Amino acid sequence: MLKRTLSGKLSALAKQFPVVAIMGPRQSGKTTLAKKIFKKHEYVSLEEPDERAFALADPKGFLRRFAEGVILDEVQRTPDLLSYIQGIVDRESIPGRFILTGSQQFHLMEKVSQTLAGRVSIVYLLPFSLSELLGQNTVDPWEIDRLPPKKKKPIFSLEEILYTGFYPRIHDKGLVPHDFLSAYYRTYVERDVRTVANIGNLDVFQRFVQLCAGRTGQLLNLSSLASDCGISHTTAGFWISILQAGFIIHLLPPHHANFSKRIVKSPKIYFLDTGLLCYLLKVRSPEEIPVHPMKGAIFETFVVSNLYKAFVHRGERAPLYFWRDKTGHEVDVVIDTGKSLIPIEIKSAETINRSFFDGLRYYTSFGAPVSKTGLLVHGGDLLCQTERFIIRPWFQSV
Question: C-alpha distances in angstroms, 385 versus 149, 318, 340, 365, 389?
């Protein structure tokens, strides 16, 4: 098993809190990680009908079996169990006694937060980051504005990893990406995620998800989405929240620093896995990506999702934003460290063009708290510093 960045944080939290919840999409490695870290805990999958029936019918008797610690997998299947866990940890607050995993945070997160407030620590595990997949030590994302040492280029190409995506099972088992992602989409997105929202019309929901894929890297326009899909504005907003809760998409908010009153206020939509994105865009092979009209958006999605994982897999909130004013100036990503704002431009081209730095030059001209150093992440191999900007290759985006 490849080392997950979250491992150390997970172990530390289990020494402080009686309940630790690992949230993330199906097939992101939650169960594997939990079993590896908490080897002495018993394991119960609440997907199993017998265990789920027992937990629902006699929750006290079900939980009485696990005095020494237990991993309760897919706990969203029995949300009422959380109230009984609360009673147990209030009587005996043993650190790390209950390890919960869940793949749907829409209703579960509200239930966990309300029922186990002050007793639970919640962390998120997404599919592999690039550094995890390569078996490399993770870099502190808070220090991304420093020139890193050169790393060896991966054996796979950029197009291959964009097409394959980062779900662990594909890489662990050597599966054909299209076959895995097709099955994953049908079982998780079409069945599980749709069921949470009680969405009856599968055809309309499929069209909605595909329309979202075609808009990755763009400003979220709910009116346009609703019109193109034939649904109401309210329904479009609700379905976006469902995809977000199911860890399918991430909404990147705009940064509201007072550099301009004429700033764009809508978030940008990104898919969290480029493999699933390519499947929805009907990309059939890595060779199609260089000539695909959405090549730039796919690459931008890859960089943003990798940055997002760099923070989330450390157990931290990702302070990621974008900046754009209504006169056309923009920066793809802004990292708000609290002390400074680090701008990042993303370009899929292998060859560096002077115009790539236009947005960075404009944004850094505002002065403090904007960092004097901006970053350019590109689709080539070049790692260097020019003027006051750091150029990073795709395989060292963070």
Answer: 12, 25, 19, 18, 6
- pTM score of the predicted model: 0.93
Give the DSSP H/E element, type plus range, for residue 291. none
The predicted-structure confidence for 6-44, as pLDDT tens digits, reads as follows 999 999 999 999 999 999 998 999 999 999 999 999 999
112 lies in the same domain as 151? no
Domain range for residue 23?
Answer: 6-124
Q: Are 363 and 324 in contact (CB under 8 A)?
A: no
318, 169: one domain: yes
Write out the two tokens for 9: 């944080």
Last residue of a domain, one of 124, 146, 161: 124
- Closest to 310 measured CA to CA, from 250, 398, 380, 179: 398
Instruction: Quote the number of domains for the chain.
Output: 2
What is the C-alpha to C-alpha distance for residues 282 and 357, in angstroms, rounded to an integer?
A: 32
Taking the CB of residue 190, how many other CB atoms lie within 10 A of it?
A: 16
Q: Quote the tokens at residue 375.
A: 């970053």
State whether 311 and 204 are in the same domain: yes
Question: Residues with Cβ < 8 Å from 269, sequence gap 6 or more?
Answer: 212, 215, 216, 217, 218, 219, 220, 240, 249, 250, 251, 252
Check whether 185 has a pLDDT greater than 60: yes
| 356 in any annotated domain | yes
Same domain for 297 and 346, yes or no, is yes
Contacts of 208 (CB under 8 A, 6+ apart): 225, 229, 231, 236, 239
Identify the weakest region by mean pLDDT among 289-298, 343-352, 379-388.
379-388
At 117, phi and psi to the nearest 5? Answer: -55, 130
